[in-house]
Design goal:
Layout: E1 11-15, H1 25-37, E2 42-45, H2 50-53, H3 63-74, E3 78-82, H4 90-95, H5 122-139, E4 145-149, H6 161-175, H7 178-185, H8 212-239, E5 246-251, E6 268-273, H9 282-300, E7 305-309, H10 327-337, E8 342-345, H11 372-386, E9 399-402, H12 405-413, H13 424-437, E10 442-445, E11 456-459, H14 469-478, E12 482-486, H15 508-511, E13 513-520, E14 527-531, E15 543-554, E16 558-563, E17 572-579, E18 582-587, E19 589-591, H16 593-606, E20 620-626, E21 630-637, E22 643-644, E23 653-656, E24 663-664, E25 669-675
Parallel strand pairs: 1-2, 1-8, 2-3, 3-4, 4-5, 5-6, 6-7, 9-10, 9-11, 11-12, 12-18
Antiparallel strand pairs: 13-15, 14-15, 14-16, 15-19, 16-17, 17-18, 20-21, 21-25, 22-24, 23-25
Helix pairs in contact: 5-8, 8-12, 10-11, 13-16
The chain binds alpha-D-galactopyranose and zinc ion (ZN).
Residues 102, 118, 120-121, 158, 160, 162-163 line the site of zinc ion (ZN).
């Protein structure tokens, strides 16, 4: 049971724009027939419908929507209703040009596209409020409507004077005095001292672009502005008397907003997932994708929604590749395995014109239900019905990786050891993949989130330590936690000022070392980490490293591996320090994946942390969800061939898939249900 959405069904459906088809009643009839056939139980409506809902200022036309919602309801299909603020009608920008966005070069955009509006503009806020209130009054308590979809894929930033003024106010709240701000941003450097908040301007490629504190605070401000706008939209709905849950749909690895700040703004997180399947081996795409699911789930640490995915091929990626048979099913069930309570598509019916006319859909231009894609979608629908009891169950990870937006912003802006590529995301992936290959569920959190519940916490390249982070880590380790930190961590505070007195700041005693220098390697240059004979972890292999090599001075740590070459040959490359009841590990260099796989396996063994399966063949993904009583074990084969595998079927029920011959077919998913231990 998903208590937030008050449903015990996994949702299956997606973006539906019937307003494009009002002149074709027979098509609208067919839609309902096909939805039922494909086991579609939800549609997301109203996304980008503003000019159909308010064709003239103050004239609201909701009849068409009402008719459709009624029809859907009668047919047992629920609605996630969107606020239409993702795109505006032309009359609105013509009459009130202030609603249009100003770019960083200080030019106001023309009307067009979507997400081309200012989140500060009082007019835009007022028009959105009115629209949302009208919608909420009309449909906000309709039994078909199960949730609110706020806007669509918030993103971008506005540099208009109204936003600049808000930025200055935001800074005043944060720093109180201009002296505090000057100190925090180190403005004595290059004579950039401000006398007054009124002098501050947003970063621009035509002006200030290298004041790192300013850049970082601007990014934080853009997030806060967007979250504030989200709350403004929700408030209108609440003021009109609708208390249905809300969601925002987030995007893959989007850097423009710190998504963690939405955790408290909405009731449930959702996201739009468009992997480029078949570009590399499917299991590699699946791991990358799995990490994004886990990032989204970890924002609220509860089930999320897959708001969009493509049933066929997209039309905006460089190559619009078809999904091979079975791929849609595997990808869809992967979302469920990682904690989604839905598989929703963009789009249910393919639009006839404009920029997404060739984007894949459940029903294409041909218009029949006898297509390959329609059949694959139907199969997903059937499987989701079979898995209905999983709705609302949770993921209980014992391992986590820190992947922090703000630290990433700062690190990638700082001119430092390797301006041509630090590979932060890749370094997080290495830790995450190492956990997942052991069959461990993993959360991917930011540094402000609680991590007491984990047995192992990895913090790769955590350049920024916010206030209190090192204290929380010290406690975690003292209480028995296993903590893994890497090179280029704990370097700066939260306004990007370098810590004085040694790094990793505040953790030198926990790690038993100090980082003294960091060597950057040219592309193609390599070093190695050679295990120290008899090291207590039992690390056996020599591994390659590249990009960054940290040179550390040991106080109490034990050295597990040393560098193989260069002037720092023989110096520590991997260390372990006992601290209280736990241990702190330090990875000195950017090692290849195999190093992480070996190391994390050994560390997990030391605390007896076991994945859901002992032996996981390559390309198989193992993930679990739990209710109080049961564990649901998802075993997914992301190879295109069958694989022999030993599954713990004793006392378990095979809820989905076929395991009769002791193997799992290519792109197949097996779900086992067993009593929680
Ligand atoms: C995004 C948007 C949708 C649509 C799809 C196409 O996720 O939210 O409106 O444009 O992309 O893939
Ligand atoms: Zn603005």
């Amino acid at each position: 049971m998903n208590k937030i959405l008050n449903t015990n069904k996994l949702l299956h459906g997606g973006d539906y724009n019937p307003e494009q088809w009002l002149a074709y009643p027979e098509i609208l009839e067919k839609d309902i027939e096909y939805f039922k056939k494909a086991h579609i139980n939800e549609v997301s409506m109203g996304i980008f419908s503003w000019s159909m809902l308010e064709p003239e200022e103050g004239k609201y036309c909701f009849e068409w929507m009402e008719e459709i919602i009624e029809k859907l309801y009668k047919n047992g299909i629920s609605v996630i209703l969107a606020t239409p603020s993702g795109a505006r009608p032309k009359w609105l920008s013509d009459k009130y040009p202030e609603v249009l966005r100003v770019d960083e070069t200080r030019h106001r955009n023309l009307y067009g596209l979507r997400h081309n509006h200012c989140y500060t503009s009082p007019v835009y806020r007022e028009k959105t409020r009115r629209m949302n209130m009208e919608l909420a009054k009309k449909f906000g308590n309709h039994p078909a409507v199960i949730a609110w979809h706020i806007s669509n894929e918030y993103g971008g930033e506005c540099h208009c004077e109204l936003c600049q003024e808000e930025f200055r106010n935001w800074l005043k709240d944060r720093y109180i005095t201009i002296d505090n701000l000057n100190r925090a941003w180190a403005t004595t450097f290059w004579s950039h001292i401000y006398q007054d908040f009124s002098q501050i301007e947003s970063p621009s490629s035509r002006g200030e672009s290298t004041l790192h504190g300013l850049n970082l605070d601007w990014k934080r401000f853009v997030t806060d502005r967007t979250v504030d706008f989200t709350k403004h939209e929700i408030q209108a709905i609440r003021d009109a008397g609708s208390y249905k849950p809300t969601t925002v749909n987030l995007m893959y690895d989007y850097q423009g907003l710190n998504y963690h700040k939405f955790a408290d703004a909405v009731d449930i997180i959702s996201w739009d997932n468009y992997p480029q399947w078949h570009k590399k081996e499917e299991y590699l795409t699946a791991m990358d994708n799995g990490m994004q699911h886990d990032i989204m789930r970890s924002i609220q640490k509860k089930p999320f929604l897959l708001m969009e995915s493509c049933p066929a091929a997209t039309n905006w990626q460089p190559v619009s590749k078809l999904k091979k048979p079975g791929m849609l099913n595997a990808a869809s069930l992967q979302a469920i395995a990682h904690g989604s309570d839905s598989v929703l598509y963009f789009q249910l019916r393919q639009s006839q014109g404009s920029s997404e006319k060739f984007h894949g859909a459940v029903i294409d231009h041909y218009g029949g239900d006898d297509t390959r894609v329609f059949k694959e979608v139907t199969k997903v629908g059937e499987d989701l019905e079979r898995l209905a009891e999983i709705t609302g169950t949770e993921t209980k990870a014992k391992a986590a990786v820190v992947f922090d937006w703000e630290s990433r912003w700062a690190m990638e802006d700082a001119q430092g050891p390797r301006n041509k590529g630090l590979f932060y995301k890749e370094s997080v992936e290495k830790s995450y993949y190492a956990f997942r290959k052991l069959g461990l569920d993993a959360d991917v959190i930011d540094m402000e989130q609680d991590f007491k519940e984990y047995q192992i916490l990895a913090a790769p390249m955590l350049y920024m330590f916010k206030k209190g982070f090192s204290e929380r880590v010290s406690e975690f380790v003292a209480d028995g936690g296993q903590f893994i930190l890497t090179y280029w961590s704990g370097i700066v505070d939260e306004t990007d000022l370098c810590y004085l007195g040694g790094t990793p700041h505040g953790l030198m005693d926990v790690l038993g070392l100090r980082s003294t220098e960091i060597d950057a390697l040219y592309d193609g240059e390599e070093n190695t980490g050679i295990p120290v004979p008899g090291n207590m972890l039992g690390i056996e292999r020599t591994w390659k490293c590249s990009n960054l090599c940290d040179l550390v001075e040991i106080s109490t740590a034990d050295v597990m591996a040393v560098y193989g070459t260069d002037f720092y040959q023989g110096m520590p490359a991997l260390t372990k320090n006992s601290y209280g009841k736990g241990n702190a590990y330090y990875i000195c260099a950017d090692f290849e994946q195999g190093f992480y796989d070996e190391l994390y396996k050994k560390i997990a063994e030391t605390v007896n942390l076991k994945g859901a399966l002992d032996d996981i063949p390559e390309g198989i993904e193992v993930t679990t969800r739990c209710s109080e009583e049961y564990q649901y074990l998802f075993v997914q084969n992301f190879n295109r061939h069958a694989v022999k595998i030993s599954l713990p079927t004793d006392g378990a029920e095979v809820l989905l898939g076929n395991y009769d011959d002791g193997s799992i077919a290519g792109l197949e998913t097996i779900v086992l249900k067993r009593k929680n231990k």
